[in-house]
Amino acid sequence: MDEAKTLDALANVLNDISEKPYDFSLHAQHISLARSLQGMESEFQSAIEMMSNFYSVGGDLWLELIEHKKASLDLGTMDGVAELLAVYERAESDYTSIPLLKAHIEFALEQYARYCGSEATEPKPDAFGELFSEDWTRTTLSDIVKKGQGHLTQSHVLWDMQRDWELEVLEAKSGSDRIEVAELVQRFLLERLRQPHSNSDDTFQTYSSFTTNHKPPQEYEPLLIAATKIRSQAVKSFQRRETMEAALVQSHFSLESYSSYVAYENRARYPDLLVMGGLYERAIAEAAKRKFAGEAGAEEALRSFWVGYCDAVRTFGDESSELEVLRRAIRSAPASGDVWARYIRHLERISDSADSSSTEDSVSEIYNSALGTNLLQSEVEQIIPVVLARAGFEKRRFEAGDGDDETFATLIAILENGIEMVRKANSNGDQWLRLEKYLSEIYRVAGLVDSLIKLWQTTAKHYKISYMACTLYTDALIKNDRADDARKVFQEVHRKHFDWPEAIWDAWVTFEHFHGTVEEINTAMDNIEKIRLQVNARRAKEAEKASRQYAQMAAEQLVTEVEAVQQQQHDNANENAMEVESVPSVNTVERGTKRRSEDDDAGAAPKRAKTEQNAAPLKRDRENCTVFVADLPPSVKEDDLRALFQDCGIIKAVKISPMPEGHVATVEFAERDCIPAALTKDKKRIHEQEIAVHLAWQSTLYITNFPESADDAYIRNLFGEFGVIFDVRWPSKKFKSTRRFCYVQYTSPTGAQAALSLHGKEFEPHQSLSVLISNPERKKDRSDRDADNKEIYVAGLNKMTSSDDLRKLFEQHGEVKDVRMATDQSGQCKGYAFIEYKAAEHAAAALQLNNFELKKRHIAVTMSDPRAKARQRNKPDADTDSGLKRRADVRSRSVRIHNLPQNTETQEGLLQQTIEKIVAVVRVEILGDTREAVVELATAADAGKLLLRPEPLEFGGNVLKITEDAVGRKSSVRTAASTSGGMFVPRTATSRPRAGLGHVKKQPAKVALSSTTAKPSAASATGKGQNDFRSMLG
Predict the structure, then answer these.
(1) Do residues 384 and 265 share a domain?
(2) Nearest Cα to Cα of residue 667 among 725, 623, 626
């Protein structure tokens, strides 16, 4: 955009801001345009200041403004300094920013050194008074440092600056002044030791040096012992949160990680307001930064964090600090009705009868300010809390005798206006009718029966399909002795299309049983039966229509996939036409010679394309057998959903997850044919709340080739901007450690379609992300399905061979993806390695290197067989580098995890990610429904580290219990081995020894073995029985 167009856009934005001053996006656009203009620094400053009149501003923008202020103000005058200090104060009241606080400290120290330091360069002007004096500087630094002390990992940046200044001032003192300042410094250091922070060891070292230099020698040891006791609690406090801090860094400070951290703090038995407040400040600042950048969901997160912060300060803080937080909150999130409501209730709580009039004015002003932003009126859930808070205040005033008839009229007017705002905000209004119920109760208590009935009459007329509005209207008529009017209403409405017609019918029948004659009861039941048949017929047609649409979509998808497969096969046939003769040799090496005759026949009569064969039934067709269930009540349980869908077919799994907009669930069926029937449950009710049921088809992505370091938080942060993520599923690595893919399931197909834009993007050099719509019928196309065909096994290597030697040799036949060479403790090759290619044909070509001479050794090259690796890994008697047998070595490196989450299918991949943040993991296996898992770690030291870990390890909301693994012990060994195989030993390792030919009888323990004792035979070693020997003899 050229300068002229930018100026035009800037003028348009200013006009829009004058009309909509609380439109956040307009202010962000104004700042962006002003920043892009060269030589328009004044306009940029004006844009920031204009935004600060309506919203809180981020620390980075304030820093830019302050730099411009420093350049333009005369800091040698009182007016210039006062204006700059006011800007600092105003900036720090918006969001906590360590760089901003650091800049403030640097300015204060610069001015102190300039006027009052030991090397002052010029006299301080008289107009400055106490400004920049030693006492002023100490107080100012303390106030600034206090604002950032809740930041566990960065607060030391500010505190260290004050520490250095305090010690510098101390060194310049002498006599009694030195003793006085030493006492201040000692209190300053001890206070810091009481606070949890990341570099507590450095603080303690500073205190030790201070004690050595400024305290008598005989006091050194007692002072250090006392300081150790003081800091012990703070050290433990930080260590408990170190894992959460690491998770924040690893997720790049995602809002999801902050939410998890906040939830962790809220679950603490004795919450620490210093830490909790600091955490909320950091989360709020991060959410505000992302909101300014236009990130989806940041506004909702910002509101949520402010609400939680306000509640925390109300619970654990004092009234003055709560008032300050509330004022900051409404400035940062003026579109949050919950924040405004909390502000109103706070003003009401701190008021007393002597000053009730001023409180009334304050509440009225705050209420008008909330509505004056015109931000709440567009969202029902933001209007209702504010209206209820103001109405509650007026109601309690009236009940306490502080109000009059005007107060009662005001109460009625507030509720009526609130109801009108709700209905204008959304055509569906408030499905719970909260304001109507509140006003109805006011009318009932006041004895205004006509007003009450009119209220429900107009409500039922507005909410035409709401069963709740209609039944509340009829209840009001019945309770006020107007049964005839209620009967007329039932007769008029029972044919209408309500969201829950059964509720209307039941209410009518119940009414007639109590108020009607036998004839009236029969008439009602007959009318209901007629309309019931019509409703059922309509629902059946809707289900049939949904079934046809679903079948059509599935057929179109299948045709598209078949055409793609056929085209791919055609292309491959053209590309590989000259390579046909090399295929048999590869197959011969790979699988032996048992089917050679069939291969020869195949050459004469080519087989048909696989697309013409009947595909084997899928073991699990999750993507096509699942429906989403939305708008669920918070109290919903799995049994509720199973009861609702039980007549649709066999239910395979149900998963319920809380989402920002409410609870959402997936119901997975055993077959696709169950889906049409499940879709008929749309608009049904659970706990009297209407639910929504829709297809989960094409809402799941298959993602692979992401960075090695990517974890669950990384994937959620990367894909979360395209839509609401319902679940992320990770594969188990117990059978293959190199598996690196996952499934991301959105709550709607639109999110999945939007996320396809990430396909092909490089997040690491030469590594393009693969993002595809998940389809179980195309599992063979996935990167890990044919991974074994891309990997070769190399044996007979010289111990001096390096990974670079192997890569250089095997890259002659294609691009090598990975080289994994087994090494001993000294780092030398143990004689074998695995080479993984990016393409299967390159791995097949590399088989030509079999018997190749490398470093004076002939190497053996074959296709990798994962079963052979598993057999080698599971040999109980194989020696290991630790000097132990295989089984004993695995036992020494394994731990057992207890108390896994019960309400969902625990993912082994997620559990492995959680533990890998602490120690290296070889494999994880969950033991059926026992809520336990066995984890094999890299070393025995890692197992000890995990067992002795003082901090609780959380997973899925549960605190895990870690014990030693019981492999090989009599208790529970056989049960675990026989049920789930979760002990990482083969089944034969726990079976009883058999007697008979080929097996050596176990010697009694009391008989000592002599040097002439016979050794086990070869037959015993391989586990052969009598039938094996009979077959050998013919």
Answers:
(1) no
(2) 626
